[in-house]
Structure formats: structure tokens, C-alpha cells
């Protein structure tokens, strides 16, 4: 449940503006303009010792002079005065402060951040929450509570509506707002939280998604310091079927420093963010256009059943390009029923196309009714899940009004997603006037449709998989800077994996040459023999791996050789592993590590020598099921090979998926204290043959570490 | 040199309209409207036996009644009358006919096409060229010769300008036109050629690119039946530094039917089109937006020296997103000089960012001069090749006029490419008014910049590589349906490759067990032994490959075994190949085949079992140099591995490139008569170690075939 202070800041009964200005273009003046202009019904208390009236409001010299304690205060005074004002708010019991003042962490990452930290410490004890500092402010057009100095609400006329936009950045709280308004879409919430010293953008978002009028949530994020709050936003949104679209920028920041595990090296911030957002059903877009281009589609209340597309146009070229765009988007063209085609054939001229895409041809110019005549026929065919209507050229000689009306009737009749592509502004305007989503090109239209449908699919998957699996990346699960990971030797790593249900190759740790010979006899040759040392992660380079040994002499020789190599190098000698030689059809890798922010992350990917140079991997955030692993495997580049090509049988994806799921459980087990894990290679056989972990390197927290089950 | 008839059709002295109508919305009426409205200065002769005047023009009963033979005629009468009209034009010596009538190949692919073929045969003998049938017509706003019935020129006011748009499709001749006009860009040529029964869109384009006023050519193509004409367009365009952008749709059409060679299977139409367009320096886009979004940049006359970007914004978020977009586009952020940063530091507030991207911060609101003050400082720094200016929010309180003026001054001063991102329509309009290219988002701006710069780079490469290498896919080079390819056995295939300078593994074709033993001794063991038959392409499956044989007994045994296998299966037994066992670091594949349209196509890619399931390949159209192969190899997914990772030395890319270049020459050699070729595997060693072809399957034209050097 979100903090009641956050509900108050979205819908305050009373607002004080500390540092009120009569200049409407100053940060202490503009909120007053907005509060009066956009219908705020609560009390407004400007505070300024130098004046008794500000922009029409009675003005008070100080907070303590107000007739009541305001629920919320805007602090718009600079420097130390801002700190004093925040403290005074806390002393008086103001629920939340919107701290617009800058000069904190954003200009001085050390001293400024420290100032923020101390301020939060003082104030939270008294129950006051802070939005900011350096916040452009919050705007709720549902309540008229516009605690913001953004210029944008003067530039693009507000209208209450179903969209909420949240961002730390001021610009990115209002740019999507402005683009929505250009499209005629109403925006209720447009909040810029600034430095997030106390309330984070995710925490505020959790309060916003409780607003039942919100039907689409847009987030701009430059970092996700508190994934647990964002997970909570996603959880509430899933319950409400509320789509969340996130633009996480800084995608291309250098990854984490080289890590000891493959997962550490490959699970760079960007890939983990991808996995985190996907895990929670949040759709990630690459730019601002991605936030807004498909927005209208989400607001139609459609319930698409699938992704088979029907395209209709008066241009053959647009038909071809629609089919191209659909194919690139992975949307198959629907196969129309024979009756549908026959009926279309009776209506359309003989040279028109009655297969999908449906080319009405330029005959539309001479007979504007063709369009309206065929749509009801298509509406009856259940094959279509969604439609794109392309009208590249119309105008004089065409009954564009009829096209738009007929399309709107058709859309209402089918209740299925429908997008229009019309590059001419006047044609576009007519379709828009009928409430239809219109794009300039068919590719843009199909791409928006694909985003919308794919996002709903993602939400459904997240709903299924996350039903009773709360996100657990609480701080205790994160790798802590103070911890000192300890590498287990291969035998211990394999034993730990095995004890958690992972399929480990048959092997024995031998403490003498004699034990090696016994192991050979028990396992049966040929065997692999490997030197075992908790000090050595990469054995091959040192000559500590010998393969295909068959005789007692060979394994005895290997024992002696390896003992010598390890002891000569001054490393700990833990013995020699004798293992069965398993053959698999493909070498995969399974890895895991603890992300400092997102907690446990599990990787599965194509193995071999070049896992890092030619990455082909998927990341999963536990908890996840084997089914989710199977879905992830299906998205690998090598998926066709895993599925079986060239007449080969499919590989044992069930076993591999189970193994990855077991790694997920292992990473969730606080007693296991795993820091990172590389199972490499994992040999996968044909379906039914299982998979086998041949080598493992596991790092655990050291015994005296505080992480885990305390 | 383009046909003089095509020059005439673009700038005719006189035009007859056969089937003139006084209804301005009919195909026989609208050209008359356009000719009078858009300033055509030649003679206009409407032809219609039923009237003496049409839309203000004196009208004649028949072509033969005209006072002169018109240079060009529009035929706008239906059915057989159209055929008669075309014949009459030819009889009278009309240079070119724009045949708008439909009912030909587009509605009847068999009978209609045949009608077209016969018409062309009759007419060409008399020297008349046909544009069409089913042509929407041609529009040249430079001469006012609008021989078109498109609705679009009523909808979007024409303005002569530097852009030419050509398409078979009517819609796609005018949709880019309309989008250009929405952007305020003038369009001179907008031509829709229809069914291309005679003059193709590429042939007409070759005439259009001779127009010195054309600075940008846009092509929409659904097929490229005459690559030699498109190559000629590209050649003229290269000489003129004229960029050509092509949208080839139907990208996702099913590939060619399964072919006997890997190249045949992998060089699907779409990949070959990619290679062809790249070969000629034509930029391929995926949709209509790609044709127009960057168009303005091409018209600025910039001469970019590189692709290092500087981003400037008053929003930190826009700075981050610009850097993201640049990184995704492969545009590095320029490193500003220390002096630049110091000088910026003196101007900007302390919390602004003086590294690139440059965040002016919201301080711009209180000091609109900041923007104009820093630009001259940045202009002096040579590190930047191009700029993106992001103004996500401005308006009341900002001096937007000054920003736009200052930016225009800066752009003029540097002469370097500059794009603006401004989502607010009024801000956008101010920058546009200064002649600057403006986009809604920074990503769109950077993507357009990247397309523009990458296209110029492509043009430069094409200029270098194509300097004296004409395109040779003349019909005789194409695989002909009548030819009967004959498979060479492995020994003959290897010998042919070797005789053309390709590095073939040491081997001998042996005709007896004794010869096998001699070969073993000459080559030195271990050797590979392979059964040789011109009837067998896939040896492994039949047990016809044995590896690592060392002794006379082993090779003798192999001889007898393989002879038996081949003879028992009723195939031709050509002997046994004994070959050295070469080791390489990577198995590559080199292939080639003759595309039925584009002629010889050479493939190089990652080898192994899954070449088709996990394609990682590049196609090249000969002639090409080893340097071009090296560029292609650098774009493979496995390029890092070829270059050396994990401390490995680089592989011998020089040798591999030379081998691929040799295959290119072989495919160009008419005497070699190669239909297809698979060199698989080609083992590549470390730099200096060369590469070795271990197996080869070559198909040649049969001896009695007519293809080749006749």
C-alpha cells in the first residue's frame, strides 16, 4: 500500500507555496497560475514575507502563520532557506514537500547528495515525505493539483484523461505529455520527481497506479535504484490490467567491470534491465516515440485474441508494404475463408485481390462505395485478429468521409484492433475525427499494432508466471560490497549443484592414485581426469584436464602429473576428479550472479569458447518456472538448432529448462549463499537423454558474511 | 545514354491526349487540368471525336487530324481502343506513349501480359516507346509536363525542387511526393510507370538522373527485372554525387525454391537485392518513412568528414537519449578539446555539463543567451563532425527565436551536418523557418543523420570500388531455365578451383588401392579418404569419408569399402581421393551461384553444420576486390572471432579474402561456365597460415548449353 502522504501529494486538501512569486514565469509563481487556471479546489497558501497578496491569493509571511497546517508544501526558495523550509514543514506535520529548489546532488554529487541524505534523515523521523529536490513538480489534472513550474502546460493545453507520465527528468515528464496532447489524448498525471532523495519515481508511480482513471502508465527512467518499488508498481498494474511502458535510457552505458563469472560479464546493466522489465510485464521502448506512438491503441479497450492481420488498401503497393511490415513484426497475414473471398469477389472488380492483403485497386476512385461494401464481409470472417487500412491517396473524387465512417462502423462491429495508415493530413484528420488511430505509413501502423499486441501478450505471460511469486530483490539479496566471495573447488561446486537437484555428470573426487583407479573402474572408461583446487578456476590452460583415459596406468599418471602441477604452482591441492565422458549434442552454459541492484540473475545461453565474443543468451530473474525457461530458450539465436534441423531430433529442452529453473531456486535459497555460478559446459542431448553439467565454478559468500538468512 | 524518346517524355514539345475528357476527375481530363495549371508551355492536343473543345483546349477528332505529330501522347481510352491508339501513335512517329489504360498484365497475368508483349513488338519496330500500361503517368514540375491523372497534385500543392520520385505504383510515386511537400521540400519529378511493358522504371530513372537539377532520387521498386538499367542509374548518379534511396518492397516474399547449393538456398531474393543495391551505392530503406525522413539532409550540400557527434540540450534526459541513439547508430560522441571545455565552463553554470553531450540545464530558462554564447565555442572545436540540438521544452519565458537564429548561424559557420529535435510544433516551426532540419525526437534526428552519413560513406565506397568495373549481369550471365547444370565430382571440382588460383588442400585422385597407398606415402599421414562420384554430393551420410588414416592397410581398406558402397548403390565410381588432413581454426563456407535476375552472386560465411539454420553470411556481386571481401567479413557476426578474441591471434583474413575474390573472378569467367559452387569447408588458419579448401561441389553448364562465351 502506498504511503498516505503520496496520496495526499496527488490530491492535497491544501497547498502552501514557500517562496511564492508574483512573476508567473518563476518557479514560485507558475504553480499559482496553474492552481487557479486548472481548477484546483483546495486551499492555496502562498508564503512570502515581502507581500500580502500573490497573483490573487492572500499571502502569508511564514508557514507557521497559516490558519492550518497545509497537507502539502511546495518549497521554491534557494539554498539553505530551502533546507530550513523543509525542516519547518516537518516540524509542523506537513505530509509531503515538493522541493523544487536545486543545488543538491545534481550539481554536487558528493556534498549535495550528503545534504540530501541528512535532510531526509531529519524529516522522515517526523513523518514528512520529500519529492525532490530539483523537482519540476507534480501535475494532476484530475484534481487540478498542479504543483509544477513546467512551461509545457502553457504550451499544450491540458485535458484530463487516462494517461499518466512519470519521470525524474522534468523534460521527460512533459515531452510525452505534449506529444499525447498533440494526438488529442488526455493526460491526468505528469510528474517529475527530480533527485528522488526520498520518494522515488517508482514509489510515486505505485500511488499513481492506484488511481482507477489511469489506463496507461508511461515511465521515463535513467536508473532503477529501487527495483522493489517498480516491481510493486508492476504488480498493482497487472492486477488492474494496466499497461506500463518504460523508457529506460542510458542503455549504452559501459557494462559492469569485468567480473569473475560469465554471467557477471554478460549480464550488463542493460540486459538485466531488459530481463527485469520483461519479468514484470513492463514493455521497454527505445525512445520517446516508443512511449507515445502506440498509446492510443491501449486506450480502446480492445481484447485481441491473436496477431493475425488483415490489410486492406486501394493501393497494391500499400498491400505489399503492409505484408512486409507484418512479416517483420511477426504478425502472420490471416487466411480468409473461401466464403469471404467469394463474397469479396462478387463486390470487387475482377482485377482486385480477394486474398489478404486485399487490394481494392484504384477502382475505389470511380466507386467510393466499394470500401464500405467489403468491410461487413470481412467483419464476418473470424480469421482476422486485427486490421490495417491503408489509404495512401484520396481527396478530390473520393468520398473520404464515407471511408472514415465505414471504417469506424467496421471497427465498432468487430471490436478488434484496427489501425489506419493515411499520409495526407486531411485524410488523416477525417479518420481521426471518427476516433480511429491513424499513422502516416503502414509500417508505423503495423509496428504500433505489434507493440500493443505484443505488450498484452507480455502482460498475460507476466500475469501467469508472477501470480504468486513476489519480487524478492530486497536489499539483503543483493551482492554487498562488503562481502568476500569465496570460490569453491570443482568438486564442491559440483556437489552443491547436485545437492540442489542439478544433473551433474557422474564423477568422484579422488584423494590418491588408487582412488582414481577405483573411480575409473566404477565409472567405466573412458573418463575425464581433472585437477581440483579451490585456487584454480581455469584448469585447461594449466594442463589439469585430460580426456579419454581408459587404463589404470593413464589415470595414475594423470594423478601424479596433476598433483605435481598444482603443488608446484603453490596452489591448494584438493585432489583429482575422475568423471564420466558424457557426450552431448550441444554445449550450453548456465550461469547466475547477484546483481548489486536487481538481485539474483540467471543466464542460459549457447556455450563453447566464444560465449562472451558471440553472446547468444537470455537472462531470467528468479523466481521463474521451467516453462519460462523454455520460452527464453525459444528466443535464442540457436533455437532452430535446439529444436532440431536437418532431420535431427529436438534436443532435451525440458531437461535443460528444469536445470535452469533449479539454478533459479538455488539462487533464491538464502542458505545456499551463492554469489555467482558458472555451469559450463552443460551438455544437452536429444529429447529424453537429459543434460549433464560437466564443470562448475561456484562462488559463495564467506562464512562470516552477513548476507543471507540472518 | 538514355533513349531520346525518354528525354522527350520528360520534356515534350507537344502532347496529345487520346481520350480527352471534360471531367477533371477522369483520367482523360485531369492531365489537361494539370497542364494548364502547372505552366506547361508546349502544345496540348486533346483528342476526342465527340467534342471540339475540352477544358479550354481546342479538341481534335483523331490523332491524324492534328496539325503536327505530337512528340508524346497520353492514351486514356479503354480496352482495344487503347491498343489501336498506341498503334496509330507508332504509325505516325510519336516518340513516346504514356499508356494509362488498364486491363493488361495487372488484371490478367497471362493473356494481359501477352497482349503487352505483342503491342511492344509492333510498336518498338517503329521507334515508339511505351510507358505503361496501367501507368498513373509522369509529372515533371520543372517543365510543367504533367502527364498524370494522380489526385495528389490537387491535394498537395506542387513546387519545383531537387527531388525525383519514381515508382511503378501510382501511390508510391505520389506518397513520397506528398510527404516531401508537407516538409516544404520541392519535388520536380514524380513518375509512375505502371506495368513497365516497355520502358521500365529504372530505364526512365536513367533519363531522370541526367536532369542536373535533381539532387536526390527516390525509388520505389516491387521487382527489379532489369538490374542492368538500375546499375546504369547508379553509375550516372555516382558520377554526379547524386544519392539514390530505394524502397524495395516484397522483402518477405518466400525465397527461391530449395536449391542444390548452399548459396542457392541462402542467397534469397531479398539478400541478393541488398547486395546489389549496396554494390551500386544505393541506400535501401525498409519503408516510406525511410524514403523521406532524412531527405532534407541530403539537400544541404554538406560534406561530412566523419561521424563523431556532439549533442547539446537544455535537458539532461535529452543528452542521455541522444548519446543512446548515437551509440545504437554507431556514431561515437566527439571528445571535445580541453580548451573547449574550459571555455564552456566559463559560460555555463557550474552544474551544467561541459563534456559531450553538453547539458546547458534548465538555466536556459533564466538566461536565453546561454545557447547563443556556447555555440561559437563549440564551432571552433574540430572534434565534431555533426551536431544534434535538442530543445524538448521551450515557449513562454524562452527566447525561441534567438535559439533558432543562433543555431542557424552556427550551422552556417561550421558547414557541418546539424539536426534539431523539438517536439513542440511551435518550437519546431521556428527552427524550420531558419532552414534547419527538425525532428520530433532526438532518436529520429540521430537516425536521420546516421542514414545520411552512412549513405555518403556507402556512395564513397561504391565510387572507389566500382570505378572501372561495369555491372555485368547481362542476360547471358543469368542462369537460364533451359540450361542443365552438371555436377562435377569432387576431384574435378577441386581441380577446377585450383586451376583458378584457389587454395585447395593437398590431395590425389586415386584409381586403385595401390595409388591410394602411394598417395598416403606422398602426402604423409594422417590422411582423409573420400569416395569420389559425380553422382554423389553428400558423402558423409553414405560412409564415403574416413578421417585420420595412417597406414597402407587403412587406406587400402577404405578404397575397397568405398568402391563397394558406390558401385552397390549403382552410382558412377570415379575413384577415391586421398587428401592431407588440414587443421584450421574456423570452418568457413564460400559459395556462388547465378541468380536468374542479378547474375553471379558470391557468398562467404561462417561454416559448419548449421550454415542454413544459423546463417551468418555476406553476399557480394562480382566483380569485387579482396578489400571489399575484407569489409564484408568485418560485418559477419563472427567478425570478433575472426579478428582474434581471448588472446588468440587474428585469423588469415587476407587469404580468405583473396580466395573469395578468386571465386568472384571465376564466376565472371565465361569459359568456366560455373552454375554454382560450394567450397565447404574452407579452413582458415591464423594470419600467415592461409586457408584451405577441403571439399568442393561445382555445377557447370552442360557442354551443349548455349550460355557463356558464344
From TrEMBL, chains A, B:
Gene3D superfamilies documented for this protein: ATP-grasp fold, A domain, ATP-grasp fold, B domain, NAD(P)-binding Rossmann-like Domain, Succinyl-CoA synthetase domains
GO molecular function: ATP binding; ligase activity
Domain CoA-binding: 9-104
Keyword field: ATP-binding, Ligase, Nucleotide-binding, Tricarboxylic acid cycle
Coiled coil start-end: none
InterPro entries attached to this UniProt entry: Acyl-CoA_Synth/Transferase, ATP_grasp_subdomain_1, CoA-bd, NAD(P)-bd_dom_sf, Succ_CoA_lig_flav_dom, Succinyl-CoA_synth-like
An individual GO BP term: tricarboxylic acid cycle
Name the UniProt record assigns to this protein: Pimeloyl-CoA synthetase
Originating organism: Skermanella aerolata
Organism lineage: Bacteria, Pseudomonadati, Pseudomonadota, Alphaproteobacteria, Rhodospirillales
Amino acid at each position: 500500500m502506498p504511503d498516505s502522504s503520496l496520496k495526499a501529494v496527488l490530491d492535497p486538501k491544501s497547498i502552501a507555496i514557500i517562496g511564492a512569486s508574483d512573476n508567473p514565469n518563476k518557479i514560485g509563481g507558475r504553480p499559482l497560475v496553474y492552481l487557479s487556471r486548472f481548477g484546483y479546489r483546495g486551499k492555496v497558501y502562498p508564503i512570502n514575507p515581502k507581500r500580502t497578496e500573490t497573483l490573487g491569493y492572500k499571502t502569508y509571511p511564514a508557514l507557521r502563520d497559516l490558519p492550518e497546517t497545509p497537507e502539502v508544501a511546495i518549497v521554491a526558495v534557494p539554498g539553505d532557506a530551502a533546507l530550513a523550509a523543509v525542516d519547518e514543514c516537518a516540524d509542523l506535520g506537513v505530509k509531503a514537500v515538493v522541493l523544487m529548489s536545486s543545488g543538491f546532488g545534481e550539481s554536487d554529487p558528493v556534498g549535495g547528495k550528503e545534504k540530501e541524505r541528512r535532510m531526509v534523515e531529519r524529516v522522515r523521523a517526523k513523518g514528512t515525505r520529500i519529492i525532490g529536490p530539483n523537482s519540476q513538480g507534480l501535475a494532476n489534472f484530475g484534481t487540478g493539483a498542479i504543483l509544477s513550474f513546467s512551461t509545457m502546460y502553457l504550451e499544450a493545453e491540458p485535458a484530463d484523461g487516462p494517461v499518466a507520465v512519470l519521470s525524474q527528468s522534468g523534460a521527460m515528464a512533459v515531452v510525452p505529455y505534449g506529444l499525447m496532447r498533440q494526438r488529442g489524448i488526455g493526460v491526468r498525471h505528469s510528474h517529475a520527481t527530480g533527485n528522488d532523495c526520498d520518494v522515488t519515481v517508482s514509489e510515486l508511480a505505485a500511488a499513481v497506479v492506484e488511481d482507477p482513471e489511469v489506463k496507461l502508465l508511461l515511465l521515463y527512467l535513467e536508473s532503477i535504484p529501487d527495483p522493489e518499488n517498480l516491481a510493486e508498481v508492476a504488480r498493482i498494474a497487472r492486477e488492474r490490467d494496466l499497461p506500463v511502458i518504460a523508457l529506460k535510457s542510458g542503455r549504452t552505458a559501459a557494462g559492469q567491470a569485468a567480473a569473475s563469472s560469465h554471467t557477471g560479464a554478460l549480464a550488463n546493466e542493460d540486459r538485466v534491465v531488459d530481463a527485469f522489465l520483461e519479468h514484470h510485464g513492463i514493455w521497454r521502448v527505445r525512445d520517446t516515440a516508443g512511449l507515445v506512438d502506440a498509446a492510443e491503441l491501449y486506450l480502446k479497450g480492445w481484447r485481441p485474441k491473436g496477431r493475425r492481420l488483415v490489410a486492406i488498401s486501394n493501393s497494391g503497393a500499400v498491400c505489399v508494404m503492409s505484408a512486409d511490415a507484418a512479416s517483420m513484426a511477426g504478425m502472420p497475414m490471416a487466411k480468409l475463408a473461401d466464403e469471404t473471398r467469394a463474397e469479396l469477389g462478387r463486390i470487387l472488380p475482377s482485377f482486385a485481390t480477394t486474398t489478404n492483403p486485399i487490394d481494392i485497386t484504384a477502382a475505389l476512385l470511380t466507386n467510393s462505395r466499394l470500401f464500405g461494401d467489403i468491410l461487413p464481409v470481412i467483419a464476418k470472417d473470424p480469421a482476422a485478429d486485427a486490421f490495417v487500412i491503408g489509404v495512401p491517396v484520396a481527396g478530390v473524387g473520393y468520398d473520404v468521409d464515407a471511408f472514415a465512417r465505414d471504417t469506424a462502423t467496421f471497427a465498432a462491429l468487430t471490436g478488434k484492433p484496427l489501425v489506419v495508415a493515411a499520409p495526407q493530413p486531411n485524410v488523416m484528420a477525417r479518420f481521426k475525427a471518427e476516433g480511429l488511430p491513424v499513422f502516416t505509413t503502414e509500417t508505423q501502423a503495423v509496428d504500433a499494432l505489434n507493440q500493443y499486441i505484443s505488450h498484452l501478450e507480455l502482460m498475460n505471460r507476466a500475469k501467469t508466471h508472477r501470480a504468486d511469486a513476489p519480487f524478492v530483490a530486497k536489499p539483503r539479496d543483493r551482492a554487498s560490497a562488503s562481502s568476500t566471495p569465496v570460490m569453491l573447488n570443482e568438486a564442491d561446486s559440483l556437489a552443491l549443484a547436485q545437492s540442489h537437484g542439478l544433473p551433474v555428470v557422474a564423477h568422484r573426487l579422488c584423494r590418491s592414485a588408487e582412488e582414481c583407479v577405483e573411480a575409473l573402474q566404477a565409472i567405466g572408461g573412458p573418463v575425464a581426469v581433472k585437477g581440483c583446487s579451490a585456487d584454480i578456476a581455469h584448469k585447461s590452460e594449466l594442463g589439469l584436464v585430460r580426456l579419454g583415459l581408459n587404463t589404470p596406468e593413464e589415470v595414475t599418471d594423470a594423478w601424479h602429473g596433476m598433483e605435481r602441477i598444482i603443488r608446484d604452482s603453490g596452489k591448494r591441492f584438493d585432489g583429482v576428479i575422475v568423471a564420466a565422458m558424457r557426450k552431448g549434442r550441444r554445449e550450453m552454459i548456465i550461469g547466475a550472479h547477484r546483481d548489486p541492484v536487481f538481485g539474483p540473475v540467471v543466464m542460459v545461453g549457447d556455450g563453447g569458447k566464444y560465449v562472451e565474443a558471440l553472446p547468444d543468451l537470455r537472462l531470467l530473474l528468479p523466481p521463474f518456472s521451467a516453462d519460462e525457461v523454455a520460452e527464453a530458450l525459444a528466443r535464442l539465436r540457436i533455437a532452430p538448432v535446439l529444436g532440431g534441423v536437418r532431420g535431427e531430433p529436438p534436443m532435451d529442452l525440458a531437461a535443460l529448462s528444469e536445470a535452469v529453473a533449479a539454478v533459479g531456486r538455488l539462487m533464491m535459497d538464502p542458505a545456499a549463499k551463492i554469489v555467482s555460478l558458472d555451469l559450463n559446459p552443460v551438455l544437452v542431448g536429444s529429447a529424453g537423454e537429459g543434460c549433464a553439467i560437466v564443470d562448475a565454478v561456484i562462488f559463495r559468500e564467506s562464512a562470516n558474511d552477513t548476507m543471507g538468512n540472518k
